[in-house]
Fold:
Amino acid sequence: MSPLQQGSLLEMTMLKLFGIVFFCGLLSPSQEVLSGLSCAVSPGAMQNVLSDAILQNGLLQQHLQGLVLPNIMGEGGLLNSPTSITGLHLVKVRLPRLSVVLLPGIGVQLTIAAKLELSGNCLVGLLSELIDILVDVNITANIKCTNFESGTVQVVIEDCLCILGAIKIKLLSGLLSLSVNEIVLNQLTATLPGLLCPVVDIVVNLVNIQLLGTLNAVIPVGTAGTIHYQLASLPFTSGLFLGLDLDGAVKQVGGSIIPHDSSPSALPPLLDKLLVLGLRQSFLNAVLSLLIQIPPQTFTCTPEVFSGASRLQEAITTLIPAGCPTCHGTSPLSIKLTLFGNPLILLEENKATVELSVMIQVFIKRLDGPILNLLLLKADLGLNAHVSIAGGRLVLGLSLGSTSLSLESSDVGISNISNLKPHCSSLLAETLLPLINGALGIGIPLPNVLGIPLIKVDIQILAVSVRKGCFLLQGTSAGHWGCF
Structure:
């Protein structure tokens, strides 16, 4: 992996997780490098996903309930009397189990093992009574995704195979012979696959439709705008993971989109993780531009607003040339803070920093109306970012790390501002930074991949790249499965 591909990554370990999802697809060589918002799901997580979606939620039982089988006719009852079994239907699916294997270049191999409880009416000669049949079935289906369009895919089942195992027949009279057992087994072997495989196809398509809705969603970001998450391409599989890429369109109120880079970045191996989600650094910058929209702040430099107001005013007053009689008054100075440009998040080893520029205007309001600009400064801030997960959102908390101060202009001839740096740093930390953290407190809504809430997340920054990279959210959990 080249340095440009490595990216800046953030690891998040999930300790307890809940939720379901199912996707499948093809793997092509060009898709081994993921782009945008990318997700890799382990086989173990997918197995739990499908088990919850198909079995635990009762979807399979619901669509098999009342399944009617063809009548069974034959000889072999008591004294070789004609035997007929009619009205045979499925009563219950017992002890269902599900397993998953990822097939590179194909998709997902799904296997469902269960005991089917059947019931009907049995006529042996002239004797009619109820019959109960318990049969073991093993259904294996290869599932793939196709026809990607506008965030949606279709799932198709290929090579559905249904194998019958042990069979138990119960009559109150106990009059059925072994030959009837064979007749029943042969008939069920011939008819059940044609009945069960279409039901599995229906169930898989319902799961696909349901869970595509968790990926394709418009999520508000406070009142500033929205993020429109959408499946970006056909899901794909390797032998190690199922991968899917997401677009994240960041829109301001009014509909204008904040652009961000879509160049590729590779995810590391899953190893023992259950799921990895990568959020591109450029995408995060677009969301920060949406969140950090602080209007210009104008205030009087007094201790009520800023604890170091007196020291700042004294430091500025000493810089004013003696030839400016109107500059030396007793009234407090006025200050205007204006954000300049867009914020930029940078990811380094074990460190996340937000770069932000602020224009600081220091002026005096004259009694006759005109404003006298004493200083126009530009402060380039390096803000240390603390990253956490709360309510399914990525939350950044910023603290002042570094300040670089430069002089843009002065109407009164001030040229040396070296002693103003500590005062301006304190000014911004007390007045502007709380506003920024308040705006960021809304959090960046994460895509609802797998429909899983994020609980007890451990965060670690993994790797470095200059101006490129992604947050890497990795999930591990003993006794649980899931994402992040």
The radius of gyration is 33 Å. The CA atoms of residues 23 and 205 lie 10 Å apart.
